[in-house]
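Page 42, continued from yesterday. The earlier attempt failed because a stray header line got pasted into the input along with the sequence. Redoing it now with the clean sequence only.
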Amino acid sequence: MAYLNVESAAYPWPKLNGVNIGPLRLQWGGSEKRGIRENQWTYSITAIDIVQTPATRFAAIRPSPDLAADSPVLEGFVTFQRVCFSCHTLNGAGDSQFGPDLNFPYSLVEYLGDERLLAYLREPQSLHLWPSAKMHPLERSTVSDSELNDLMLYFHHMSRRKTDFSREAAGK
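This time it went through. Structure tokens are written below.
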């Protein structure tokens, strides 16, 4: 459940790294149970649009419906949506144009392998030294080792569920 907090003029919020975080801030209820950390709450909000979930909007990113409800692949899918999907597409699906597609034409696990991919996700500069790279390390405070393992299972699962798409069909 998301809550919109409104800053009180009488009690303004403290600055974050010298920046005003008001007047609106989105906070997630039950966040400690869902692994949503305070550093992921959004602040300085200027507008809110309500849209369907990524899984509803983009069928191409969904794991197989045959998976058990407690499958670690589904947990990895949750982590993918929380951590990766804001910058990347998968199977050509998604709104972002910032980072590359993570499954097409080759999945991350196909061309990097598990060991290099895990190292890259924890520290992107470990694979290629690229000073202007935009990807930040997935620190353990953001993605636990267990969540990262589930994310890897999701990537492996999706490498077998590729959607052949063209840039024209994907609207890019």
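Notes: Confidence is low (pLDDT under 50) at residues 168-172.
Reminder to self: strip header lines before submitting.
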